[in-house]
Amino acid sequence: MKQIEEAIEILGNAIRGSAEYKRYQEKKERLHHLPELEKQVMEYRRKNFELQNSQNAAGLYEATAQFEQEYREFRKNPYVSEYLAAELAICRIVQQINWTLIEGLDFEVGFEE
Fold first, then answer.
1. What is the C-alpha to C-alpha distance for residues 104 and 71, in angstroms, rounded to an integer?
2. CB within 8 A of 56, min separation 6: which ones?
3. Domain boundaries, the chain
4. Could you tell me which residues come within 8 angstroms of residue 75 by beta carbon, excluding any fewer than 6 positions away?
5. Residue 107: is its pLDDT beyond 80?
């Protein structure tokens, strides 16, 4: 387990040293200086998370369209769009790490019928 913990620490350091992470931290800090906007962004993120994890598949298309319409102007704010883009870049790095790990292991991720 110690070897894994050391590898995780090295990976964490590599991520923290990346341009994507530094950009994310910069955008996060800039947004933090605008508390009302930061609150709105966190509310947007919460609603987006709930929408993506909704169990209501039947109404998902309509709910997504309504959500996008509701936040269309909000997303045009450069502080918001730049923060969300930087956050997405970090999420994609984490996704790539997860997929690379799973692909390299004999680990079942799906369900077969």
1. 39
2. 63
3. 16-102
4. 81, 84
5. no
Contact at 8 Å (CB) between 63 and 50? no
Per-residue DSSP letters for 15-37?
A: HHTSHHHHHHHHHHHHHHTSHHH
Query: What count of other Cβ atoms lies within 10 Å of the Cβ of residue 56?
Result: 9
Predicted pLDDT of residue 58: 77
Provide the token pair at 99. Answer: 């997929």
pLDDT in tens, 75-102: 999 999 999 999 999 999 999 999 999 8
Q: Can you say whether the dihedral through the CA atoms of 32, 33, 39, 43 is positive or negative?
A: negative
Q: Are 83 and 26 in contact (CB under 8 A)?
A: no
DSSP state of 110: S
